[in-house]
C-alpha cells in the first residue's frame, strides 16, 4: 500500500475530486494548508502599505491506495492539477505499513 499526498492549488480541488471519482478512488482526506516553494510568496498592497505574503493557501489531498492503483492516481492528479504555471504543487508517495478500519478491525487492503 502507498500513501499519495498531493499539495495543489485550492481552485483545482473540485476538478481533481471529480477526476478521481471517475477512476473509482473511493476515499481521500483533504486539508487546507499554507506553504511556499520556489515562488517564495508574493507582495500585496493593502490600504497603501506593502505586505509580504510568505505562505500561500494550498490544499493537501491524502489517498491511501493499493500499489497497483498508484500510477493511475498519479496520472489523474497530474493531468488535472497542471496549469503550467509556478505553484502547481507536488505529489509525494510513501509506503504505508498497515491500515486498520476502526469499525470492523479489518487490516491491510481489506480496510481500504
UniProtKB/TrEMBL annotation:
GO MF assignments: ATP binding; enzyme regulator activity
Residue positions where O-UMP-tyrosine is found in the record: 51
InterPro entries: N-reg_PII, N-reg_PII-like_a/b, N-reg_PII/ATP_PRibTrfase_C
Keyword Phosphoprotein: yes
Any GO BP: regulation of nitrogen utilization
Annotated keywords: Nucleotide-binding, Phosphoprotein
Pfam family, one: P-II
A GO cellular component annotation in the UniProt record: cytosol
Name of the protein described by the UniProt record: Nitrogen regulatory protein P-II
